[in-house]
Amino acid sequence: MVADGLRVLFCGINPGLMTAATGHHFARPGNRFWPALHRSGFTAVPLHPSEQRELLSYGLGITNVVARATARADELSAEEYREGGRLLAAKVARLRPRWLAVLGVTAYRAAFDDRKAQVGPQARTIGGTRVWVLPNPSGLNAHWTPAALAEEFGRLREAAARE
Fold first, then answer.
1. CA distance 70 to 15
2. What distance in Å separates the CA atoms of residue 13 and residue 68, rounded to the nearest whole number?
3. Quick check: helix, strand or coil at residue 135?
4. Could you count the other beta carbons within 10 Å of the beta carbon of residue 41?
5. For residue range 97-154, what is the model confidence (pLDDT) as tens digits?
6. Which residues are catalytic?
7. How far apart are CA 131 and CA 13, in angstroms?
8. How many C-beta atoms surround the C-beta of residue 91 within 10 A?
9. How far apart are CA 86 and CA 112, in angstroms?
10. Were both Cys, which of 20, 83, 138, 154 would link to 40 (CB 3.0–4.6 Å)?
11. 48-78 residue pLDDT tens
12. Which candidate, 21, 27, 25, places its Cα nearest to that of 11?
């Protein structure tokens, strides 16, 4: 779900089993990506995973660091993350979104070998693309409440609107 010149390209870790089965990103009912996207003001209406193509009309897209589907992200190897980061950087250089938003600080650290990265804007750029790390919206990431997720997504939305 990508296109040239997006405002923000969101990047999940890898497809979960529900996403692999449905073909829709963040398809598991407990995942908080879609609600956070709406609550933060990125979309005018709440979207269901099956409506993911609507994101393009907002200048948004979705991809993953690693293409292999797993039940849990901790099933991925360090090499898969590194290779995924390399492929993602090439995709970003080709598509030139204004922002790349990686969903999960642990995934970002592993994919881009940046052990000190924190949630928020990063010093790293890929070509002219700025990078922001968002919290993983999985329901397993319970210390990020829905309100806190929406607030962090909103910080990115505001930064993207300024550019």
1. 7
2. 10
3. coil
4. 13
5. 999 999 999 999 999 999 999 999 999 999 999 999 999 998 778 889 999 999 999 9
6. 14, 25
7. 15
8. 16
9. 8
10. 154
11. 999 999 999 999 999 999 999 999 888 999 9
12. 25
